[in-house]
Design brief:
Order of helices and strands: HHEEHEHEE
Mean pLDDT: 92
Shape: globular
Helix content: 25-40%
Oligomer: single chain
Radius of gyration: 13 Å
Strand order of the largest sheet: 2-1-3-4-5
Structural class: alpha+beta
């Protein structure tokens, strides 16, 4: 979890994130870490993508959290792969302008990709 060190605000969510990844495996799980009223929250989301090696957060859910909070991270998992962003991840992350927090499951790696 090298990329995760020093980010205390995220440490409180990591076990919930890995639990969500375990529940969704072998599919990718997804969610958001938001800041709302000076409080950070982990929001697990349903993966709307029909395949296994990609994720899609419902656009209405994403828009809702954009309107009512600051989205700090888009979170998703890579099953049986490392936690480095794919080219697809990098492209989508740059379009959104929001960092991706990627976890690998089951090996529990963590990586933050920030397009800025």
């Amino acid at each position: 979890m090298e990329a995760f060190r020093g980010r205390r605000t995220l440490n409180k969510f990591i076990e919930e994130i890995f639990s969500h990844a375990e529940k969704e495996a072998p599919r990718e799980m997804c969610g958001l870490i938001i800041e709302q009223n000076n409080e950070e929250k982990w929001i697990p989301c349903e993966n709307k993508f029909l395949g296994e090696n990609q994720f899609e957060i419902d656009p209405k859910t994403f828009a809702k959290y954009q309107l009512i909070s600051k989205i700090k991270y888009v979170v998703h998992s890579h099953y049986m792969q490392d936690c480095h962003p794919s080219e697809h991840d990098k492209k989508n992350c740059k379009v959104l302008g929001i960092p991706y927090l990627i976890v690998s499951y089951p090996d529990r790696g963590v990586n933050i990709y920030d397009p800025r």
